[in-house]
Amino acid sequence: MSLLVSAAFAALLALPSFSEKIPITLDIVNAFGAPDGFNRSMVTANGTYPGPLITATKGDTLVVTVNNLLDDSSMRLSTSLDFDGLWVNTPDAFNEGSSFVTTCPIAPNASYTYTVPLVDNQTGTFWYHSQLSVQYVDGLRGALIVYDPDDPLKDLYDVDDENTIWQVGDWWHNSTLPMLAGYVATGIVPVSDSGTFNGVGRYNGGPEVPFFVVNVVQGTRYRFRIINTSARNVFTMSIDSHNMTIIETDGTATSPMTVNSIDMLAGQRHSVVVEANQPVANYWINAPYVGGSPARNLNQNATLSRAILRYAGAPEEDPSSPMSLGPADEDLNALVEANLRPLVAAPAPEADINVTLNLVVTAGKAQWNVNNVSYLAPEVPTLLKILDGANSTDDFNVTENTFVFPPNKIVQVIFPPSEDDEEHPFHLHGNNFWLIKSNSSEELNTENPIKRDVAGVGSTGTIMRFSTANPGPWFFHCHIFWHLQAGLATVMASGLDETRKEVHPTQAWNDLCPAYEALPPELQ
Ligand SMILES: *[C@@H]1O[C@H](CO)[C@@H](O)[C@H](O)[C@H]1NC(C)=O
Ligand SMILES: *[C@@H]1O[C@H](CO)[C@@H](O)[C@H](O)[C@H]1NC(C)=O
Ligand SMILES: *[C@@H]1O[C@H](CO)[C@@H](O)[C@H](O)[C@H]1NC(C)=O
Ligand SMILES: *[C@@H]1O[C@H](CO)[C@@H](O)[C@H](O)[C@H]1NC(C)=O
Ligand SMILES: *[C@@H]1O[C@H](CO)[C@@H](O)[C@H](O)[C@H]1NC(C)=O
Ligand SMILES: *[C@@H]1O[C@H](CO)[C@@H](O)[C@H](O)[C@H]1NC(C)=O
Ligand SMILES: *[C@@H]1O[C@H](CO)[C@@H](O)[C@H](O)[C@H]1NC(C)=O
Ligand SMILES: *[C@@H]1O[C@H](CO)[C@@H](O)[C@H](O)[C@H]1NC(C)=O
Ligand SMILES: *[C@@H]1O[C@H](CO)[C@@H](O)[C@H](O)[C@H]1NC(C)=O
Ligand SMILES: *[C@@H]1O[C@H](CO)[C@@H](O)[C@H](O)[C@H]1NC(C)=O
Ligand SMILES: *[C@@H]1O[C@H](CO)[C@@H](O)[C@H](O)[C@H]1NC(C)=O
Ligand SMILES: *[C@@H]1O[C@H](CO)[C@@H](O)[C@H](O)[C@H]1NC(C)=O
Ligand SMILES: [Cu+2]
């Protein structure tokens, strides 16, 4: 072999794993469906709730073409997709999908292609959902998994495929437009009718829709990827007679931690390894939820939010044990968020800038404030304003709640303890953050904190740090979309000069705003 050829071979071997463009088409259509037995018109991807699974491999580029075919005017007719939890590098910020932050929505009968490279070797469990008003409540949600061929924890499980994904989410019988109108009129957040497990649920007095069945083979270890696709409710996951070993939190590989109950807030994800090590039988997977007073919606019955873990060889029937809400107190070994550690632990960098965010609800109104300001989506997206020269906080309306930071700094966000009894799952777009203080603990941890992209903000206070090394206007908001709609949101905009330098949107993106603005309100 000549020297030249072997050098070429060596170069080939040193290349990172082969990266591919993954073309995906999603037809956004109104379709009838009865996830919990109540037939209603929904907003869906390809006609199903949840929408089709999107999968990719580390380093791929997602090329997602969205055809907006919505036609049911009882719900929003425009749309926009967010690929929740994926990091987005500055040059791709315009394909990040946040309506009025990084893009305008896609008008009915229009199409748009989001090109989203999977950067920095990011892998894990993600999801996509509408990021226009509260439209995802009407059904537009689905799982997005990025597989890691070199998963450092792969020796811990045998099976990880399309059958090991659990999407738990709240479900509503009414469509969002009347519910939103009711919320604005009363200040009372709508209460869900049911909880669904992979798109199947039950409500009080409803038909006995067969529970979702998760099939397992005795002696096998499964990586279940749990996604809380709620718009409001908190679910508590457990499996009768089985433990769960957490190995991933919002895309971060975690030091394995065995628990038997996991609380997950809206938008949060965990991978857990479950070993089918019990006698062949049927076992309940309990997914009770909390979110608003059940007295406001008599359909609600958290006990009915569940699925069945069925061992091969077990009869096709419900488990014989009672429907519990999870382990009894004396057996409870629940996840404490503050105890999560990344598999590759590292100290959080020191903070350069402190920002304190106070969350306050206006009594009796559908209005949430962050530092006395209720976020109101602007007509011109933040990114477009930046590209047009906006360079300081003063260049944005107060109601845009936009914080401007220099690039390459570490921002520490401090949420003081709040009197409100509901935990607000704050979600950062485009990046993840070091969770320095979890709401689950009084301890500060700068030594080896977990990095995630959604964390609860509540009664004990929460502190996070994020880097502005990835400039752009990144939406930072409560993932209870009713609260977001009521103003519980901010935009963390960093490196505005760098953003202008690096972001070069396509003509298709430039065309979105004029097309949307030209629509009469009922088509927006
Ligand atoms: C969605 O439906 C379209 C049209 O039938 C199809 O081409 C596409 O492959 C489907 N997408 C997925 C992710 O299954
Ligand atoms: C749901 O309602 C629609 C419209 O009334 C009807 O076409 C459809 O057949 C119904 N589906 C079921 C499963 O009842
Ligand atoms: C979308 O196209 C269909 C078929 O051409 C048409 O019937 C419908 O009115 C259009 N919708 C809008 C909002 O323009
Ligand atoms: C991604 O992984 C490859 C192969 O393991 C490595 O060479 C490369 O440095 C990684 N890139 C980043 C940005 O971490
Ligand atoms: C939806 O909400 C409206 C307004 O509150 C109400 O009139 C209507 O009956 C509700 N529909 C359903 C299916 O709950
Ligand atoms: C999902 O999140 C919501 C809102 O934070 C919460 O009420 C619900 O219990 C969570 N569900 C699960 C299964 O963790
Ligand atoms: C679950 O974990 C606990 C504590 O680690 C252990 O005592 C128990 O035996 C485990 N249960 C099963 C079913 O593996
Ligand atoms: C909820 O469902 C369970 C199981 O069917 C039932 O035992 C219980 O009475 C229901 N709760 C309410 C408040 O109806
Ligand atoms: C940020 O706040 C913390 C806690 O009050 C303080 O210790 C730290 O010095 C502050 N850092 C900066 C850069 O202001
Ligand atoms: C909010 O407004 C109150 C009363 O106007 C004022 O005292 C307080 O300092 C403001 N808080 C912030 C964070 O701006
Ligand atoms: C934007 O602000 C930064 C920091 O204040 C400054 O260095 C830069 O020159 C400004 N850019 C423009 C275009 O005004
Ligand atoms: C700008 O902010 C003011 C309050 O400071 C608000 O009344 C107004 O509606 C906002 N305008 C826009 C276009 O968002
Ligand atoms: Cu909230």
From TrEMBL:
It comes from the Eukaryota. Keywords: Copper, Disulfide bond, Glycoprotein, Metal-binding, Oxidoreductase, Signal. Residues 1-19 form the signal peptide. InterPro entries: Cu-oxidase-like_N, Cu-oxidase_2nd, Cu-oxidase_C, Cu-oxidase_fam, Cu_oxidase_CS, Cu_oxidase_Cu_BS, Cupredoxin. Pfam families: Cu-oxidase, Cu-oxidase_2, Cu-oxidase_3. Transmembrane segments: none annotated. Residues 36-150, 163-314, 376-493 form the Plastocyanin-like domain. Gene3D superfamilies: Cupredoxins - blue copper proteins (2.60.40.420). One of its GO terms (molecular function) is oxidoreductase activity. Belongs to the multicopper oxidase family. This is Cu-oxidase-domain-containing protein. It comes from Lentinula raphanica. The lineage of its organism: Eukaryota, Fungi, Dikarya, Basidiomycota, Agaricomycotina.
